[in-house]
Amino acid sequence: MTAGTDPDLLFRQVVEGLGQPFYAVDRDWRVILYNDEAARHFGRPAADVLGRRLWDIFAGEADHERGRLLREAMATRRVVRGETQSMMAARLISYCLFPLGDGLGVVLSDVSDRRDAQQALGERSAELEAVLDTIPTAVWFTYDREAREIVRNRRAVELLRLPQDTTMRLAAAPHRTFRVQRNGQDLGPDETPLRRAVRGETVENELLDLVHDDGDRRILLVRAAPLRGPDGSVIGAVCAAADVTERHKYEARLRLLVDELNHRAKNTLAVVQSLAKLTLKNLDTPSRQSFEERLFNLAQVHDLLTQDHWTGAELGAVLASAVRAVFPADNRVNLAGDSIRLNPHIAISLSMAAHELATNAIKYGALSSVSGRVSVRWSTDGGRFVLTWEESNGPAPTPPTRRGFGTRMIGDVVAKELDGKVRFDYRAAGLLCTIEGSLGALQASPGAG
């Protein structure tokens, strides 16, 4: 021992430095040591405690469970550890009772906050398990960077056909009776979404096949993401999978029905065209040709709508298809405007309107001359839609003396369907047709396509 060091002083410093309530009694139960933390814990200063018998200070403790523990430790001369209710309010304390000289040393620690935190954690865990067992989505998660221990909910157990008594927490996977595939290729253990997420990757809406040994195949829509700690490091991962097999079967049946209807509609149009040729064969050639071109335009817009299963079509594509069918020169007709998805009914009407305007421009307007140009612009503002067909560098238009099919169709039918109006301006510079209407009347529904 270093010279000048006082053993009693060192001992007192150790007692005070414990940072926990500490007291000691001799074999007659007189308090011989009592640190500041003990004074705060019991609410009694050392002057009121030292030298007095423990059972006199805390009347009634001798007959309490706490008293029995103290007497047992004193008698057996062995270390006793545990937890018990504190005599000071409703607090939980841990204790360590150990032989000290011919008496007993006692170290206490208030663990109430830890108990409350564990209780709250247990309640949250129970709530989480209840939620996970209720949702129809299979969920796996792990806090193991190697994904050796995986927690799974009841739907995941059912989906993988694990035994019903399978615990929610399993070490990796039991004997596998299934395979996971992407595009027909088996995935290795390290290629599964959960393992990828543990490595820090986020998996968004990936379609995978779950193939059981009996041949049953389920289609899963899977998402997975890493779980990160406060410092941003990956501490685990979570994966969720929805069984979308029935939805995909329904969509496949629906596509089959739509394709069959499209096929029949195209056949019907072909029959109508054939009948028109036979029926109108004695009609003058221009009239018959106009009718056939209108039927062809109708078939063209039907093809556009068929590509998206009749959910709608882009306005730009509808106008381009109608114009290019009768005037293929790209550099003389300019189309520009906002991206607007039309509902099928309006797509057909605006396609027919564009066909009539293009045909008229070829016969009498800007496209009848080499230098003529057509600018088609459309825009939206405040829930309204405006489309302009502007011709330039062609012959000056002459206002018609009577309303033909095209004028009537555009002026009456289109205006009514768009809940708007149509204006024809026969300017010396070229025809200007303005179509205005309600944006809501022409747009496809938000979920379409």
Please list the strands of the largest sheet in the order they lie side by side: 8-7-6-13-12-11-9-10
DSSP strand content: 25-35%
- Contiguous uncertain segments of 5+ residues: none
What is the domain total for the residues?
3
Q: What is the helix tally? A: 13
Shape verdict: elongated
The rounded distance between the terminal residues' Cα atoms is: 87 Å
The helix fraction, in percent, is 25-40%
CATH topology of the largest domain: Heat Shock Protein 90
The structure class reads alpha+beta
Word description of this protein:
This protein has an 8-stranded antiparallel beta sheet with strand order 8-7-6-13-12-11-9-10. Strands 2-1-5-4-3 form a 5-stranded antiparallel beta sheet, sandwiched between helices. It has a 5-stranded mixed beta sheet with strand order 15-17-18-20-19. It folds into 3 domains: 7-110, 2-Layer Sandwich (Beta-Lactamase), CATH 3.30.450; 122-243, Beta-Lactamase; 248-442, Heat Shock Protein 90, CATH 3.30.565.10. It contains 13 helices and 20 strands. Helices cover 39% and strands 28% of the residues. The longest helix has 35 residues, at 245-279.
List keywords for this structure.
single chain; 449 residues; alpha+beta; Heat Shock Protein 90; 13 helices
What's this, in brief?
By secondary structure, this protein is α+β, with helices and mostly antiparallel strands. It has helices spanning 7-17, 36-42, 54-57, 65-76, 112-134, 154-159, 193-198, 245-279, 285-307, 315-326, 344-363, 405-417, 439-442, and strands at residues 22-25, 31-34, 80-85, 92-100, 103-110, 138-142, 149-152, 169-171, 178-182, 185-186, 203-212, 217-228, 234-243, 313-314, 333-337, 341-342, 373-381, 384-392, 421-427, 430-438.
